[in-house]
């Protein structure tokens, strides 16, 4: 198989899977078997590209060239390779989890759920391999619309309202800001291609470069930089597997992935350093990190606490990119992976608790670690990664970001990282303490009046949550592949 065919198959496999899922929808066992086989086939196809990319090859294919410098094309560079590995690999585990969750909670419209999930993954792979801003924009929009039915899955008033907020903010920002930024880039440079060192050097200068960067940052609403963040907590009305998709596998990762790609391959790190046009982004992302962490501290609903944690953690990636040093850019790429493994574990844990114990609030979790030791141990691992402590992946990415801030003497960024680490500990460690070191408030019921006679969630959920927690530790122990891809991204951009 050629590498060009493998690129196309990365989008075709999940799309075909969506069709097969629709055809087998009346047979749940067959439908879910098709989902699993499709996810595995996609991951193996992505793995086929990994070796050549690590060896320095950059396979590419053009589907349609409309005008010079304006085409729908794909190119597998190191950052896109990392993102595609994360998305395709976690789709397998999310599918296993979904089987246990959707059946365990007797969710309706399960066939539609699996179809939309497959289409969203197809869009994610198209975005990951985009060779230019036009291709990225197209798949960015497909991802938004394909996830709307997932957010509104329950169909009640709250779900519909949350989904409208989700769709409204993401479409408005992309059309009003991102599309305009892309058009401006094409007008200024005559191309939209992602190029090592950027394409805007000498083409856009002074305050105009800062303005263009601002349009990109707020146009990429999926990165959830404040004040363009309300869609993310609004989307928490969705089932937990969807929350995992939003927060770990596809949607928010497509946002911060796009930010890093634009900074490295459209503007160019050296161009931004020379112009000083990105200085404001350190303060905006830093504010988002601290403000979202402080809001998370006050949330009793577990999923909302995790949602605001995600807003904060995403801006770690934006902050790392804004520091504008090679080592901080490596940290940004690594944090995309570290956050994916850690946050999907946390959301899997929240869904596991809901499925087994029907508890949604932090105040209800007294002593639950003794009833659900696997779930809460996995939660603890994910939490440690978000705080940035060893032996978890979050320690590695945060270490590189800190090194980047220190090497550039960016003390504002360094202060944000230190303060936010304390805040992260402030809203995660009490949950672990309540789960393992506090007893339920009364015999037979918890502090929320819920019956406490339960154990772990169904086996597929336990398998998935154990696997993602293990990945969080394995990335700490064996970071070589992720680190090599991140370093190649910078090596190719200098």
TrEMBL record:
This is NADH-ubiquinone oxidoreductase chain L. It is found in: Cell membrane; Membrane. Belongs to the CPA3 antiporters (TC 2.A.63) subunit D family. InterPro entries: CPA3_Na-H_Antiporter_D, ND/Mrp_TM, Proton_antipo_N. It comes from the Bacteria. It comes from Candidatus Terasakiella magnetica. Pfam families: Proton_antipo_M, Proton_antipo_N. The chain crosses the membrane at residues 6-24, 36-54, 79-101, 113-131, 137-153, 165-187, 207-225, 245-268, 280-297, 306-330, 378-401, 413-436, 457-478. PANTHER family: NA(+)_H(+) ANTIPORTER SUBUNIT D1, NADH DEHYDROGENASE.
